[in-house]
């Protein structure tokens, strides 16, 4: 298993993002976020709604009566950064962090990492996902749900939710 790098600073996250995008052929022909390091704000209302602290949950932890964690979205020099975690007393946890690439009223795209560790999934080992993740509000929901729900480490579905304040 690849060791999980430390993303405790915005500089480390931006360095990772630039490395990922400059090395990725998936951006060929498209404007790379590395070319424009500012968050694309498609809705000022959506930006305002996303900034600040939000409850954060992974359903496996909530089923075990773990309280919601906290996701914090900050802005520095036009870049929105999200950092959050939910931790259970038994060591299970969810970590979500990275740069918000774009935001509108119902959706935001995060470029970074999502780490889940649940004792009955993947033999209790951490599952690391890195890349682009789309969080969106659908219907009358009061939260953004991560669209990429399939856990790549085991055949289960993870519901990662960032709640509106």
Structural commentary:
The protein has 165 residues and is of the alpha+beta class. The protein has a single domain, classed as Lipocalin, CATH 2.40.128. The protein is built from three helices and nine strands; from the N terminus they run αβαβαβββββββ. An eight-stranded antiparallel beta barrel has the order 2-3-4-5-6-7-8-9. A hairpin with a 5-residue loop joins β4 and β5. About 12% of the residues have low confidence.
Describe the structure in brief:
The chain is an alpha+beta fold and 165 residues long. The protein has a single domain (36-163), classed as Lipocalin (Beta Barrel).
Number of helices: 3
**Percent range of helical residues:** 10-25%
The total count of strands amounts to 9
Rg, Cα atoms, Å = 15 Å
- Give the SSE string: HEHEHEEEEEEE
* Low-pLDDT stretches: 17-35
Sheet with the most strands: spatial strand order: 2-3-4-5-6-7-8-9
End-to-end gap: 36 Å
Instruction: Describe the global form.
Output: globular
Predict the CATH topology: Lipocalin
**Architecture per CATH nomenclature, i.e. the level-2 architecture:** Beta Barrel
Sheet with the most strands, sense and barrel status: 8 strands, antiparallel, barrel
Percentage beta strand: 35-45%
Number of self-contained structural domains: 1
Write the layout of secondary structure elements.
Elements: H1 10-23, E1 40-41, H2 44-50, E2 52-58, H3 59-63, E3 69-76, E4 79-87, E5 93-103, E6 107-117, E7 127-136, E8 143-146, E9 160-163
Parallel strand pairs: 1-5
Antiparallel strand pairs: 2-3, 2-9, 3-4, 4-5, 5-6, 6-7, 7-8, 8-9
